Amino acid sequence: LDVAVNNAGIFRGGGHSAADLPLEDWQALLDVNVTGVLHALRAEVAHMRAHGGGAIVNVSSNLGAHVRVPGLFGYQVSKAAVSALTRAAALDHVGDGIRINAVSPGAAESTMSLRPGETEAEREVRMKGESPLGRISSAAEVAAAVLYLASDAAGSAVGTDLVIDGGAAA
């Protein structure tokens, strides 16, 4: 194992504030989005330590550490935690020869960027007005960011949180 990508994420509890988010949604978000990444990271680091190092890329989100939207409390907190986990773990394990970074996509080609009942065509129209770039990011653009951080070309990237969101966090 030389490279690992931790791409775990669920979205629950949309439309709820901190005071109103159901605790079941909060727990599910933390279990998958944060604890799931931590479990994977621990196993990856253990293997990489024993085999000469490697690169780990965690997939976070522009929502949380970079952009905040009312009513998305739980998701934003969980993804901000992934960004913080990445930076802290990066410092802890760079001495082990392991580079740990994150990619934080915004709206991209996935069902998670669709609003309830929205079609892809409707999302395209909505994003023309919501995104400074005027569109969602392609899956290939997000994958290219992950591949870069996993590659030797990013050899000095440690604890980086690369935002790929068409300018939404600018």
Distance between the termini: 35 Å
CATH homolog superfamily:
NAD(P)-binding Rossmann-like Domain
Count of discrete alpha- or pi-helical segments spanning 4 or more residues: 4
The neighbouring-strand order within the major sheet is 1-2-3-4
Unreliable spans are none
In percent, how helical is the residue content?
A: 40-55%
Mean pLDDT: 96
Instruction: Give helix and strand order, one letter per element, not per position.
Output: EHEHEHHE
Based on CA atoms alone, the radius of gyration comes out at 16 Å
Class from helix and strand fractions: alpha/beta
The level 1 CATH classification is: Alpha Beta
Strand content: 5-15%
List keywords for this structure.
4 helices, alpha/beta, 4-stranded parallel sheet, globular, Rossmann fold, single chain, 4 strands, 170 residues
Describe the protein's architecture and organization:
- By secondary structure, the chain is of the alpha/beta class.
- The chain has a single domain, classed as 3-Layer(aba) Sandwich (Rossmann fold).
- Helices cover 42% and strands 13% of the residues.
- It has helices at residues 23-50, 73-93, 120-130, 139-150; strands spanning 3-6, 54-59, 98-105, 161-164.
- Strands 1-2-3-4 form a four-stranded parallel β-sheet, sandwiched between helices.
- Helix 1 packs parallel to helix 2.
- The protein is globular and about 45 Å long.
- The mean pLDDT is 96.
List the helices and strands and how they pair.
Elements lengths: L2 E4 L16 H28 L3 E6 L13 H21 L4 E8 L14 H11 L8 H12 L10 E4 L6
Parallel strand pairs: 1-2, 2-3, 3-4
Helix pairs in contact: 1-2
